[in-house]
Records
---
Amino acid sequence: MSENRADSFLRMIRRSQRGRLKIYLGYVAGVGKTWQMLEEAHRIRQEGIDVVVGFVETHGRAETAALIDGLEVIPRRRLEYRGIMIEEMDLDAVLARKPHVVLVDELAHTNVPGSRHAKRYEDVQDLLSAGIHVISTLNVQHLESLYDMVEKIAGIKVRERIPDTVVADADEIVNVDLTTEDLTKRLQEGKVYPSDRVGVALANFFKKTNLAQLRELTLREVASQIDLRSRDVSETEITATPDQVMVCLSSRGPNSEMLLRYASRLAGRLNRNWYAVYVQTPSEEPTVIDSQTQRILSGTLTLAKQLGAVVFTYKGEDVAETILRFAKEYRVGHLVIGSPGPLTFWKKLLQKKNVVERLIQNAGGVTVVVLDTRKSCKFPAEKSEQFAMGSDLAAAPSDRLLLSSVLSPERIVIWNESIDKEDALRALVETAARDCGMNDAASVLEQVLDSEDQGSTFLNEGAAFPHVRIKGLTVPCMALGLAHRGLADVISDNPIECVFLILSPAEKPEVQLQILSVASRAAQSRYLSSNLGEAATSEEAFEHILDWEATEEPLSARKQSR
């Protein structure tokens, strides 16, 4: 079986122009992920593939260390932090060596301050962008969307986490499984941790009940990844099934992170696009709310982006009405919201309804999921899993639409100097209108600015997706702006460098959703983003898009192993 898995990865390596990622996934330390990764390295080395060790953590296990013998090891980078010398993978050395395949253990690892990136998975994304194939390892508890479930199961807060999109974008996932009895035996024999740590481990994280639940969680995750890649439906099914997922955020709402993780899992199970929407009321204008609340909100929106959501902020006095208007426009089928806050005495006296009650009353066919986000929340992880996995809804074929089919070199604008948001939008609208045969560019710009004023799309770090549906437009049209020095008047942790202007027929709302999905996927590709950031001409940028599309296989075509 392991030989067949190695062969399948070999075939991917030989036909690929961009780096491919293979992950050995386990439910806990000690199941044999690193061992299997090293065994595969020897296998592909015998096949003549140039493979090196970028970083492998043996944890003092002699058998694992012995497997490194015979493999080229890139020397580690040593950094001093608070008087202690710490070793990290030398990313620059691996890039300079440019092997065909590199082994990078512990994908969720946090790098020491002073490194190029904060997380190791970001190092891996750089390697993939450089055309280097990566084999890595990961434990299931490090997935961001599983944080609340793992805390419920094991009673611990996992500090090192990675966005689910990293795993979703992997080209191959191998589930490294071991019975809980065999794992416990390995632990007792000192093959996982030193003998002085065995007793503490068995009494805490490695309790049999914990291991059994984490193992089941891993099997579900692998099954969902396979299911995600195997679905394939026609556009007519999509049109008839408006089931995007939307999560409602609040600047002062408790446990927004739990809402986002739940929505991410739900969208993953349904294989649907999902949106994170924050409604900014007059009392929550940036000039009104305090700096701490602003920081919390910024962190929440950043997490939403990391989990794969398309993030919007809407301005409105009536939160429920604004949410329902968004849900209708974006064909939302599942709306996720947290527990409502207590009503004031006067609102109770006047028998006013809270936001959640009004949403349920006026949902009109939308499924409203209310999570208990109070401090003592105890929503059952297993029930949310069953709810999501039990659906037979069709999957959105976001891989089937190509950016190149709605874009052209003539509709790519590059700014080498910093530019304001409105000037950028005006230039993109004029470019799109001229190339797509629209006569009234001023009217289109007015619609775009009104849409942005209602709900800004300039919150996704590094990219924005302004979009409107145009009456009378027969085919969709996109213009792409590349701001190499960012937008001057947009405050974001990472500068907005890519602006995807999407104009679609008003009569075909599903087309807008499909283009939004593929544009969001493009923006999340470090491979494409880094190349676009270096493009000097629109023709060069378009070639980079074609190259990305050529190397991006549809999810359903990716080889999976269990």
---
Amino acid sequence: MKKLINIFLPILIIFFIIIISCKKTDSNVSQDSEEIFKAFYSSEPIPSDIIWLTNDTDLEFASPEAKKGGTLNSFILSFPNTFRVVGPDSNNSLRGLILDNQLSLLEMHPNSENLIPSLATHWAFDKNKRTMYFKLDKNAKWSDGVSVTGHDYAYTIEFMRSKHIVAPWYNDYYTNFIEKVIVYDDYTISISLNKPLPELYLYLTLSPTPRHFYKQLNEEFITKYNWSIVPNTGPYQITKFNKGKFIIFERKKDWWAKDLKYFKNRFNADRVIFKVIKDNNIAWEYFKKGSIDVFGLTIPDYWYDKTKVKEFEYGYINKIWFFNDTPQSAMGMYLNQDKEIFKDKNVRYAFAHAMNVEKVIKTVLRDDYFRLENGYVGYGKYSNNKIRARRFDLDKVDNYMKKSGWNRGDDGIWIKNGLRFSVDVVYSQEEHTKRLVVLKEEAKKAGVELNLDRLDPATSYKKILEKKHDVAWMGWSTSSRPRFWEHYHSDNAHKPQTNNVTNNDDKELDILIDQYRNSIDENERIKLSLILQEKIYNIGDFVPTFMIPYVREAYWRWIKLPKKFGTKVTDNLFDPFNTSYGGLFWIDENIKKETLDALKSGIKFEPVTIVDETYKMDIIK
């Protein structure tokens, strides 16, 4: 996600799911469920004074030169624990790929930020500022051939409110934010919030859910649908997988939206294969052999050093550095306040001042990365740009620790009542080890011991969500507006499978978060957002580290990009599925044969390195 302010839909990806429903009910559905479902229908006519809107005037951003065909070979670091996108273990490496193939009612144009059609062709706003009306595309189909109708959206509400999906965030959102879906006919619906909100479209472009697929929504849901391939509405669908080894997505040749203005000339590869390669270094070797087509070069060692090989110097593989303009991931160190050592605010402050992030940037990261000042950078008026992250400062560490009665032990590490200032840092990527080693060595000077606990991505994330960590080294995806409830409200503290990984439990903060969620005045929400960020800073349970307002990637020369390489919000130039900005590349099979022949014979091409600053953020220019 990362998107700026009212930037578009992948935001909403957080709110919405990949599942479907149809008008016809099933004999296995309970009577109570039937009664709930019937409540979504109305015999009242749609209001006559609304103004229907659409958008077919924004510029296309795909290339007319794009060709269909070929296979994109990519990789993931771990095989997921489930194909479900809600419920336990659903936050995994595959979830985003599945959700990117599940369309919402509307998208947002990645450059203009205007609404554009997706599953809906037209939309309208009610004067009450909490209801939107939609005309659905009558051609839309699920991947199993069933038509997408308004009944599928009604079922989304029933599905997401169910306790059987074991997803508290979704239960809360679809109960306390979404009031109802009204189906006027098969292709006309309205969706209402429980309260008016500014920028209503950010909350109401939800996805449908398949009632015809989910035969029973009961206590067996988690296990029954753990490995189900759910029908979707997007350009690709999973066709084959081997647990622990690979997952294959294939393009739908007869995809219903392939000729629509904002989707045509996109999603060009016939298939996308994700191999499971648990180590980036091994994946790099696969890439150099041509078994993988694209590879991220964000890490400086890769961009500067590892590309000094024949494959790049002979022009077989290209490099591109593409700046974007999006909200920044909240990357940093999350301190678990349920651990005894972090219950004391002074100790949390001391920990932050013991982290020499600037040295990591200067040395390991070669000054290519930028310091992240707080967890909400890049949200425009909603960002509190006065906040500055706590810097490495031995004197401040000393003051805070002594204030709380700690003393240095014989080994130089702070100690109090037998408790040493020694904590485990959970992380998952081997490439991050060098960064953490520098932090570890610098922290020793401050009397803090870091024990580096590298786990595979699935195990790492599971441990963090179960709140068994001391310090979590991680980042979160972004949205159109700052999100506070899921990360900082006490409703999500002291329990597993929530995003409040610091177990923050502050009643004063709860009140402000609730006010922010309930406000219908944009100016008030902006003011509350700035206050909340300051309060969170004062709690000190998050140490922000780096931000990366660009992408750097390598790609074999048979992978082609448009003349305008990406969009303002592109955070992966070779994203095959993202319906907001992805699928712009294509594969030239003739150039692939030419390149592989040249590789065997040693023929050279001109090396290619591209730096594109078209969308470079003002704050770093």
---
Amino acid sequence: MVIEWRTGEDGQSGEKPLKRAAEYVRMSTEHQKYSTDNQSAEIRAYAARRGFEIVRTYADEGKSGLRIDGRDSFQQLLSDIQSGNADFEAILVYDVSRWGRFQDPNEASHYVWLCKSAGISIHYCAEQVENDGSMGSSIVTTVKQVMAGEYSRELSIKVFKGQCRLITLGYRQGGPPGFGLRRMLVDEHGNQKGLLDRGEHKSIATDRVVLVEGPDEEVALVREIYRQFVEDQRSERQIADWLNAQGIMSDLERPWSRGAVHQILINEKYVGHNVWGRTSFKLKTKHVRNDPSEWIRHDSAFPAIVPQPLFDAARLVIDQRSQRLSDEEMLALLADILAKNGSLSGLIIDEYEDGPSSSAYQSRFGSLLRAYSLVGYVPDHDYRYLEINRALRRMHPSIVKDVIEGVRAAGGTAIQNLENDTLLINEEITASIVIARCKLTRGGSRRWKIRLDESLRPDITICVRMDEENMHAHDYYILPRMTLAEGVLRLADHNGLSLDAFRFESLDGFFTLAERAPFRKAA
């Protein structure tokens, strides 16, 4: 929203003319207490004290500050400045976080630089330090930008952990219930409070949502879909045509498609399992399909509509479609799907008649991305990090083996716990080994994010930081338990003495620590 203010002429001669300024206000859905009205009131008080006249307002209401996408007014502000249409010489913002909570502080600084290069200064009205370009001001502003982005990261981690815990307790976390199921609102003691219709959400923080059986006729239809697919050997397309011929609509009030039937046949919620995290959408990044090992689940969380043996039989039929095809035949089918649709996705593949499912391609070729690459398709978004993560997981056992051999070569002992891959060194110290993928920021800086299993609580954590190609170890951090207060550790090239004091070019020093030294017996 952009508002152009009309101001009257200054009727008093001799007064210093007011400097023309624009105000930018933003409110995200997570921070309703910082309303745009409150921000504007503070900005106008600042303008009155500093001799500014606000001639234009740019307002993004209900917009996240994580990135520029979706912030139409912010984009319009930058466009006006870059095109030379800005009729003001300053921008007034409530504070650094309202400018944005960009995950890379370089991005926030880039937009500031665009404004300053056009001769337009930026004032953060609620901050204690003037944004005057001095060394002290630049340092404080950069720290504030990092803190603004870090707040969102920490909030994302906390929310994710909370959601994982609720899933393991059997509660539903978002999404439509599906045909034959309904969402039931329960209180903190598990007492049912009533069904939630489409578009309705819980309003009390302590309330939770579980899945329950829907109307009897829908439950019967779900079981009939499974029966026809397994016993009558009818395809998803034939079942969809049968449902549409009877005038039966899907749970979304739409005619049935092959993919809609297929989703019923592969979704574990119909056998009562609560599965979450198949895809991720963290910090406003694009949705990504997660590896099944990363899914969060609670089996038998709610009543099953379909018996487990019938569900397994349906999945067996779907899996066997690809087992009778060679790799070349599967790729030929995938190339045909690409030619007909112009793009590929899991949903597009699942809609293809009598072809293998997207999960079959993932199982056969290791991932959908590898299957895409084999037919010459490159998705718009770069998902290569999924392949890198899988390669690093395959690398982990060899690194553990190298550590064990290094400790033993130094004269110590190392015993591996096969359940969690931790090491017991010299029968005294427990150690865990984690590998961190290297990621390059837009500015070319290297970043590493290390996920720690807080349930292990080892005495020492060996963090292996990979190089830019993620092929070889760049360096190592040997961190004692006392330095690890959080479950996620984010590292840059330089992290301050509190962390870099534990950085090593190799593990030779660690092996030396494991060496056993003989002592003379006391007389």
---
Amino acid sequence: MSLFNRFVTNNLYVAAFFALIALACARQSSPMGGPKDDTPPVPLKSKPVNYSTNFTGDRFLIQFNEFVVLKNIRQELLVSPPLPEKPDVKLRGKNVIVKINNILKDSTTYNFNFYGALSDLTENNPLPNFQFEFSTGPVFDSIYLGGTLRDAFNYKTETGIYVMLYETLVDSVPRKTLPAYIAKTDENGTFMVTNLKNKPYRIFALKDQNNNLKFDLPTEAVAFTDSAYMPGFVEKEFVDTLHLISSISPDRKDTVYMDSVVHRKNMVTTIGNIQLFLFAEDFGFQYFKNLYRLERQQVVLAFNKPVDSSFHIQPLIDSTVAEPWFVQEKTPKNDSLVFWITDTALFHRDSLKLQIQYTMKDSNLVDYIKTDTLLAFFETKEVENEKPKETKKEGRFGLNLFNQKEENQKVDSGPKPSELTFSCNAKAPFELNKPVELVARFPLKSVNTQNIQLIKIVDDTIKKPIKFKLFQDSLQTRKYLIDFVKEEEEKYELLIPSGAFIDLFGNANDTLKYAFTTRGLDYYSNLTLHLTKVGFPSVMQLMDEKETVQQEWFIQGDTSLTIPYLVPKKYLLKLFNDTNPNKKWDTGNFLLLQHPEQVYYFPKEVETKSNWDLEFDWEMATVTPPHLKKDKKGKTTDPKNKNKGTPPSKNN
């Protein structure tokens, strides 16, 4: 061949080579339009095959139809029975390779659940709860236990809570050893523990905070069954579909799969409705949270729980302090302590150093007295104005209970310290079932009711005096209540003369006048409940949609309860057994095998409407809280009532 012919031939080869590269690049580009790929990766085959017996290796391989990615594999992959050391998981092409780093037990069926760890590379389509199973013996164990786990107090569910099974039935086992089998809850609180042997198991759930599968932290939430479960069994046929490659087109653009159906029979449990209720034990840990100084004369100390009689506070200053130097304000829960400083030399200091002592527990849960030194700093209005506003929902520091200011209002933006002012709920329209509330800025030293007047305005010329009772609220020191017989759609005036109230610092109120009009009776609804199978002394609660308690009642057993003056909106009904009885919900204790006090929800939300009466029968049964159902327009639909409702009589 001549030199010219060789040159032409070689250049043709080169041109063809680059043409092939260009064509390949063109084929790899994304097509325009077409449906989006929303299918998860498909497992094609594995080595050994899934559900194998007599497994003796230290690794297995799973091949998918496309490239996959691993997400949080060390957290998502769960092996049951648990392995002391986590396996290594690697990607090689379209293969997932799992290397086992422990010696496996004889005649045991293992389940590798990938939960949310697998998805495809291109569109991130997840392959949820993919499981690979094998047995190290000739028998493949297929018994399972299933059920639902919920929070013991509010029935809420949570994903990722461990549900563990133990073959040893000693109560202390969850604190010391790994479980025999394990699973995790999904977002609905559902769990399924699979591949069990035919024997009794003790069931235990754990919200594992240190990821060691042991109940070794006092703050970890748990759930448990009273006794071991020995399920009954039934033979069931399973149909597994394997996706195998049937053919590949010559240009490798299209792959055709065929389904291979495998039938197998196994013994399975008949138990799938186990109910577990998660709770955190109350170990009595006391700790200090924060200090606030919302008024110059005020210091607020916030704790995580009510303090006991060991608490002590004293100022650390050089000069002599007049005793007593403070008055403590009563609060509903006593977990936040409010002190009003009566010594003028102290409260005029912008910076006040305090020492507090309170009971704590050490790592062995033994009580000891802890001493803290705190700095209570008061910022004047000018300094506060230089800082951005805080817009917490509960107001600044979440302490509207103590400062009684509007949300988002700055510290010290109210009246001068020499003025005694009040907040009052006497505004139109005024509810028929509520008293007038007066909340003083400072604690009161004296109250003179002699010249306070409550008047009903009949017309422009007739004003009728009304009898009333004024008394201090039992739970909030600075709140005073004025109660009287209210009539619907009537105008009232509350007149408080100057000097009727004197506070701790000698400040007197100015003349106060509040005018308000009551609502009409036909605005309200009445609700009657017939409660049966209560069984224990209990607390019944009426709550709004956010589960904020509106009213509550202590009942001794089965009863009928009528709730009048309900404003038109949606409510939830909740009841818990008060077995103590201390009129509050109590958690459980695992070592004592003591469950939390049982909680019940009325199975549907209650929607009240103006001028309607509602009546329901409520037989106590464990149900999930009702959820709001919304239509396509986003409006909440009406629940179906037992009775459609009848207008209440205005004579009620």
